[in-house]
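In this section we walk through a basic example: taking a raw amino acid sequence and producing a predicted 3D structure, encoded as discrete structure tokens. The instruction is simple. Fold the sequence below.
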Amino acid sequence: MASESGSSDERLVVRARRGSARAFGTLCARYERLARSRARLWIVGRVCRRVSLRDVLQEAYLHAHEHLDEFEDRGEGAFGAWLAQIAEYKAREAVRRHAGVAQRNAAREAPRDLRPPTAQVPGREPTPSQVAMHHEEADTVHAALDALSEDHRTVLELVQFDHQSLKQAAFLMGRTYEATKKLYGRAVAALARALGKHATES
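The resulting token sequence is shown next.
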């Protein structure tokens, strides 16, 4: 049998759908680095102690295998993008589970009437990125996010898209609250600049 490593994604997907474990394994190996890098965006700071990147990737591979019939092949590299998206979703799922446990443990230790200071909760006024989500195409926002540094992208995703408080984001990133607050402010400004640059170039 010819080596699977030289086969196109399309052929490997067809073989995998027919039950070839070797073809599916080749696809996963081919895009492991991409899937790993997307998942790692979420497994940062103290989360690394509780969330295993290896376990997240295994869950992603299992999910991809079970839902292979749902994959829409749009050309070479499409499977890699699909697998990376699954890996990111599984990483976010794992982080949310960890955050939930941390919050429940903290609640048991704190007085019932204790509430976080207002400064520790993101404001309700629309932020530049929230406004952009309503007025720009989703791919424009994603492109702007991709242009940011890893720290800026992570804190924005945690606070704005995953609805974590700044205090919880600080815990997940292994930073102090003050450092995270400053990082978030810089990240919002950086995203606004990136969106403005894109609008100028369009």
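Looking at the output, two observations stand out. The chain is about 65% helix and 0% strand. The mean pLDDT is 76. In the next section we compare this with other chains.
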